[in-house]
Amino acid sequence: MKTFFGWLRRGRTSVIGVPYLWLVVFFLFPFLVVFKISVSEMGTVSVNDVLSIKDGVLQLTLRGTSYAFLTQDDLYFKTYLSSIKYAAITTLLCLAIGYPFSYFMARAKATIQPALLMLVMLPFWTSFLLRVYAWKGLLDENGWVWRALTALHLDQSLAYFELISAPGKLMNTPFSLVIGMVYTYLPFMILPLYSNLAKMDLRLLEAASDLGATPWKAFWLITVPLSKAGIIAGSMLVFIPCVGEFVIPELLGGPQTLMIGRVLWDEFFSNNDWPMASTVAVVMILLIIVPLAVFNRYQAEAQEKAA
Amino acid sequence: MKRSTPFGAGFARGFGRGWLGAGYVFLYLPIVALVVYSFNDSPVPNLWKGFTLKWYVKLASDGEMLGGLWLSLKIAFFTACSSLVLGTLAAFALVKYRRFSGRTLFSGMVNAPLVMPEVIIGLSLLLMLVSVQRALGFPERGAMTIWFGHLLLGMAYATVVVQARLQGLNPQLEEAAMDLGAKPFQVFALVTLPMIAQALMSAWLLTFTLSLDDVVLSAFLNGPGSTTMPLVIFSRARLGLNPSVNAVATVIITLVAIGTVVASIWIARAERERAKAIAQAQRDDG
What we know:
The complex is a heterodimer. Chain A is mainly α.
């Protein structure tokens, strides 16, 4: 016994040290570099260094130019707001679709539950990029979904609520963007909710029913509060990546759908403005840092509890 | 045991089945459409004009796509193997050592890449690598820098999968093996490893597919001549519908379907044999 724990203790340094060091170098350190570049200025060919040696004296030149520019041009502000708006809408829709879905999955016969779970995970194994591309085909003129919606004249109500630009034009609109994001992130909502709901002690519901609660009341007073951890985990798994999503807005979004991920991409790849791209990234990190902390806390708690 | 549901039993069952059915249709509709239109003999996408295999024939001589595929497979292989090593180490660190300094930061750094927008990870990693390259003269942007990015993401997913399995293990088994005189490495190789083998396999496959699929990190980290398959697909998909993309998609979907079926048969057989071995051992015992 002693030797096993002795070995664990000796192995401890490398078991913890190797992944720790790797994450510090490749995850934490890059953020410091981004922050440094965000307060630099673009030189003629490359980014001017923040630290420079002039006349033998080390000089620190911090430039707030990019940050000032960010506040002056309200397009950035609008884009941040609109990214948060689309991420929030996506999260709510995923919850509205995913909660009943996970609930019915968790209450299905125990024998078919593994199959139901497998069917949710399977699309995850096929390329995400290709599945987003598939929606382009479905929503474009004469695509299957386009045909179904226009046949039912639903495109007119979508146009009325300005979710699409004109009846019969579904692609490159807020509607197509949200459908793509809900589609992509729905499994991320279902999986934590399912694992939470499947573990629930059903005797609590029986007790509630014995004490005279209607099933509906028992659902809201017992099932929903008990699945809080699953709801929070799922919502964060959807919301945070959606704020900075790039591929889906690029393939399915349009001129109306401002997303900050695309702005960052354009600043970097089209304008070659590294300080501006870094500034956009730093502000984005500040926006998601609170949800990120919430996610990390719940993730850590869930992991402690399972142990 | 009585099942209590918020609705009448019959209505609840019908509603539940309907909701699940509609959900699965939503999840699988795009995949079906991709496959169907890969056989469409029409230059105009979305207009069905009969069955053809010509997009597959064209795919066979599509050098850009095939070159990208080969590179992607190589990167995905190295990503999956290295993610498994780092992810297993990280999972061990988090499960076996309840307390060490900086544990909160460590678990935060392990979990954050799961949700962190990829544009941020890609940009920051690239800017760091550029700074390093300016100072030291390496690494050159290319397959290796893409691998760094994929490893960061893959490690996070591998850690979550392995960690979940490690937590479900009964520590008494390892302790019993120690008491019976097994050396620590033997305990790991003969007791721990077989018990987490299935999780290791799913983690490997998951990180392999993640890497094979990644657009954003690859776009930031690639260099001249290192265009992966998703980058080829993405640049074509950006321009509009393209039957060659449907053909590639169908090939990938078929491979994934075959892989899943083979893996589940293999897992089911392994489970059966394990159960048989346990029953046998118990009989010998009694």
